[in-house]
Design a protein that fits this description.
motor protein, 384 residues, disordered N terminus, microtubule, 30% helix, alpha/beta, binds magnesium ion, binds adenosine-5'-diphosphate, globular
């Protein structure tokens, strides 16, 4: 069989459907690192047609197309980004529509997950030369609010916090741990700094400084791994004139979440999950995976209360919110297991349904339980 077509730089991403009641799930492959190349790393991931992800473990055959039919080796997402994708491409495809929804007065959230070193922080924060989704989203918000505001008065308020070991800390003004409280708007961290921002450059500096304050732990020699989840929340408020020339106040909230490394926490095997729980490794990520499982299986009870992270994300995963997930993966065959795990969870997340409406309304998540079965039936019919 011929190898799958190579990606062409000028190809357009397929237009992703309007944000609906579904979580949009994207995958981004990062380039092979210098150290990985030196260590003889081979690429085990191929992205085709900007949607399909093929994995090989080189055990039997290195032909990606023949692995097409193997379960757990072929995945398809709303869009998949090859290693040549730019920050701007990733932002426009995954988040720009969400920014539009936030400007209309809705809530939205984007989160990145994947193993340590897979490219989450690069995607979210990026570098000064190549700013990531957080910065590009704020830039877009600034410029659109300035165009649309009817009175020139507007506010963009930022808060940046981390959840580490079930402790919530302010990343803008680090200090004592913050207490989570439930109020009418949902879960809030008491005393969290709300920073009023005026320009994108200032935001980049603020976030870089905030990231310096993130808790890191050494995992392997010469390597630091972030075991903390970073959550940036941006509240925008401005006024427009409607068709009848009445002044209408618009308030929306965008949450951007850089999750901790998923390598040890997102185990697929129940027994492994329990033993990890025993070892008390990242309770928040385990709780997140339990919530995703419960949502996908249509369970009445979704255990949001089990961790600080899921409490903070309650209105993003289960409520009235437009949610985007970006799963980051490494191309290296050294990370095959982690990549497969990440893709498995991303694949599952596609089944979550959320109801989109006003942020204030109390919403029960709706899960399409029949989808999996229907898919399986179709597959079996095809096979027959
Ligand atoms: P994570 O936050 O998931 O642990 P990082 O974002 O820190 O991973 O990425 C690990 C390394 O790979 C960093 O040196 C980062 O600059 C680099 N990297 C990640 N994604 C990309 C990309 N798309 N293009 C170029 N370099 C990248
Ligand atoms: Mg990181």
């Amino acid at each position: 069989a011929p190898p799958p077509p190579e990606m062409k730089g000028n190809q357009e991403y397929e237009k992703v459907g309007k944000l609906g009641n579904r979580i949009l799930v994207f995958v981004r492959l990062r380039p092979m690192g210098k150290k990985e190349k030196e260590a003889g790393s081979r690429c085990c991931v191929k992205i085709v047609n900007r949607r399909d992800v093929y994995l090989t473990d080189f055990a039997n055959d290195s032909d990606y197309l023949r692995l097409n039919r193997l379960r757990g080796r072929h995945f398809t997402f709303d869009a998949s980004f090859p290693d040549v994708a730019t920050q701007q491409e990733v932002y426009s495809t995954t988040t720009s529509e969400l920014v539009e929804a936030v400007l209309q007065g809705r809530n939205g959230s984007v989160f990145c997950y994947g193993a340590t070193g897979a490219g989450k922080t690069y995607t979210m924060l990026g570098t000064t030369d190549n700013p990531g989704v957080m910065v590009l989203a704020i830039k877009d918000l600034f410029s659109k609010i300035r165009q649309r505001s009817c009175d020139g008065n507007h506010g963009v308020h930022l808060s940046y916090l981390e959840v580490y070991n079930e402790t919530v800390r302010d990343l803008i003004s680090p200090g004592r741990p913050l207490v989570l409280r439930e109020d009418k708007q949902g879960i809030v961290a008491a005393g969290l700094t709300q920073y009023r921002a005026y320009s994108t450059d200032e935001v980049m500096a603020l976030l870089q400084q905030g990231n310096q304050n993130r808790t890191t732990e050494p995992t392997r020699a010469n390597e630091t791994s972030s075991r903390s989840h970073a959550i940036l929340q941006v509240v925008v408020e401005y006024r427009i004139r409607d068709a009848a020339m009445n002044v209408v106040n618009k308030v929306g909230k965008l949450s951007l979440i850089d999750l901790a490394g998923s390598e040890r926490a997102l185990a697929t095997d129940q027994r492994t999950v329990r033993s990890l729980e025993g070892a008390n490794i990242n309770r928040s990520l385990l709780a997140l995976s339990s919530c995703i499982n419960a949502l996908v299986e249509g369970k009445k009870h979704v255990p949001f209360r089990n961790s600080k992270l899921t409490q903070l994300l309650k209105d993003s995963l289960g409520g009235a919110c437009n949610t985007v997930m970006i799963a980051n993966i490494s191309p290296s065959h050294f990370s095959f297991g982690e990549t497969q795990n990440t893709l498995h969870w991303a694949d599952r997340a596609k089944e979550i349904r959320t109801k989109t409406c006003d942020a204030t309304e109390d919403v029960v998540p709706v899960v399409e339980t029949e989808t999996d079965q229907a898919k399986l039936v179709l597959e079996l019919q095809k096979e027959n």
